[in-house]
Design goal:
57 residues; single chain; mainly alpha
């Protein structure tokens, strides 16, 4: 890949805008869904082993 410092300013700004949009539109939402889903999965597995929350029966 070419050195970012050697690129013209307009090309560099366009690349930065594309990267920013990629991060905001794709990467962060996918990571958020993955983190929340994996937390929910971990709680579900824990409750299968330890039982549901509440007073002892």
């Amino acid at each position: 890949m070419s050195d970012p410092d050697s690129l013209p300013s307009s090309v560099r700004k366009r690349q930065e805008l594309k990267l920013f949009l990629f991060i905001c539109v794709l990467l962060f939402p996918i990571l958020a869904v993955a983190v929340v889903g994996s937390y929910g999965f971990a709680v579900w597995i824990y409750q299968m082993i330890a039982g549901p929350p509440g007073p002892p029966g």
